[in-house]
Amino acid sequence: MPIPCSTEACTSAATIKRSKDGSAVCATCFTRRFEEDVHETISATNLFKRGEKVAIGASGGKDSTVLAYVMKVLNARHDYGLELILLSIDEGIKGYRDDSLKSVERNKIEYELPLTILSYKDLYGWSMDEIVARIGKKNNCTFCGVFRRQALDRGAYKLGATKLVTGHNADDIAETVLMNLLRGDVARLQRCTNICTGDDGGSLPRAKPLKYTFEKDIVMYARVNKLEYFYTECIYAPNSYRNFARDYIKKLERVRPRAILDIIYSGESIAVRKEVALPVLGRCSRCGYISSQKLCKACLLIEGLNTNQLDLGIKRKVTTETKTGCGKDKTGSSCGCSNEDKVQSIDF
């Protein structure tokens, strides 16, 4: 016997189980509730202002494809008054990014949104394939993550966008909370759950409208609405640190789906004591990008590649100072012992 749709006044049979709340709904109600959930997130957080030019980070994958489609639908339905544009980054990964960009090109036509594509090669002088050939498959996600983030900002600035939106979903954010917790990265842990970052005037505001949307629901939405997207995983991703966090989150989800949202809520509740020193953001002396150091991470990584110092910007630099003797004894006389204290300092 068919299970009825859980939506009141709907007489259709349920065909989909929502990951977010476990409710059984028909395809039509699933689509409507998915879109209204995203709209509620946008409205509750005042994510956009009328007249803003919003760049959508488009990779051709499920998240960015659904984001672009939903943003276009909601912008028209609820009259946000936004100017939407697509922005893609070509990392230079043969057999992966070149194919996914074909999906973005189709989205451009189907959604009638202008598209701009920037490449790592043009921006940094290196493609990811060239970087991996130089450094191997370890730490390549560090290079790609740093370069991609900066490339999206550069592209958005170039297009005159006032805000950048990305397809980060609830699973992604839960993974990030876990990763920052394991790393002991207090600064990132404090801000990684923010639905909008950079709105303090330091950099281009970056928003995540799909923050509370489950990855499984995104996949189902794409299938129900017959959205074309590129679903092959990056050929370098299996070696990433995030992959281990992702596997753990998936195991938690199988036991208790709400665990994903609970991790996000826990991240939102974290408060850092006032006496804890956090990095002070400034500007890179070389490229002008936002940075807590004299040189931003991207410039350090590029310098390392160009000078064959492949650990530059990757490993923490540890210096050791040796102090001879213990200073003075209780009588005030100099101590002549040969004890050596080795003091380590870490340069980030």
From TrEMBL:
Lineage of the species this protein comes from: Eukaryota, Metazoa, Ecdysozoa, Nematoda, Chromadorea
Classification via SUPFAM superfamilies: Adenine nucleotide alpha hydrolases-like
Domain of life (superkingdom): Eukaryota
Places the protein is found: Cytoplasm
Record GO biological process: protein urmylation; tRNA wobble position uridine thiolation
Protein name (database record): Cytoplasmic tRNA 2-thiolation protein 1
Record-listed E.C. numbers: 2.7.7.-
Top enzyme category: transferase
Positions contributing to ATP binding: 57-59, 63, 89, 167, 172
Domain tRNA(Ile)-lysidine/2-thiocytidine synthase N-terminal: 53-246
Record family assignment: Belongs to the TtcA family. CTU1/NCS6/ATPBD3 subfamily.
Source organism of the structure: Mesorhabditis belari
The keyword Membrane belongs to this UniProt entry's keyword annotation: no
Protein's job: Plays a central role in 2-thiolation of mcm(5)S(2)U at tRNA wobble positions of tRNA(Lys), tRNA(Glu) and tRNA(Gln). Directly binds tRNAs and probably acts by catalyzing adenylation of tRNAs, an intermediate required for 2-thiolation. It is unclear whether it acts as a sulfurtransferase that transfers sulfur from thiocarboxylated URM1 onto the uridine of tRNAs at wobble position.
Cellular component GO terms, alphabetical: cytosolic tRNA wobble base thiouridylase complex; mitochondrion
Molecular functions per Gene Ontology: ATP binding; nucleotidyltransferase activity; tRNA binding
Pathway(s) served: tRNA modification; 5-methoxycarbonylmethyl-2-thiouridine-tRNA biosynthesis
Keywords: ATP-binding, Cytoplasm, Nucleotide-binding, RNA-binding, Transferase, tRNA processing, tRNA-binding
Span of domain Cytoplasmic tRNA 2-thiolation protein 1 C-terminal: 282-308
